[in-house]
Amino acid sequence: MSKYNSLWEYVRDNGNSSLKMTFEQIQQIAGIPIDHSFLKYKKELTEYGYKVEKISMKGQTVIFSKIDL
Predict the structure, then answer these.
(1) Residues 13 and 52: beta-carbon distance below 8 Å
(2) DSSP state string for 1-59
(3) Is it the case that residue 1 has pLDDT exceeding 80?
(4) Which superkingdom (predicted)?
(5) Which pairs with CB-CB distance under 8 Å and at least 24 residues apart come from 53-56?
(6) Domain tally for the chain?
(7) Which domain holds residue 58?
(8) Phi and psi torsions of 58, nearest 5°
């Protein structure tokens, strides 16, 4: 089980084609702060039908997009 499973489930259950979240929102849902390991773990999101589209360090946001199958 990944430390980001609760976040991946939240993104999947949201059901939108695109979802923009702040680092703070991600921390609240995942229960942990976003850090460099997020870059490694983001690959797991494809199992939930989504991908990380963009990470903005300046804006402290992440955009998730649904994968077209």
Answers:
(1) no
(2) --TTHHHHHHHHHH--SEEEEEHHHHHHHHSS---TTHHHHGGGGGGGTEEEEEEETTT
(3) no
(4) Bacteria
(5) 53/18
(6) 1
(7) 5-66
(8) -65, -50
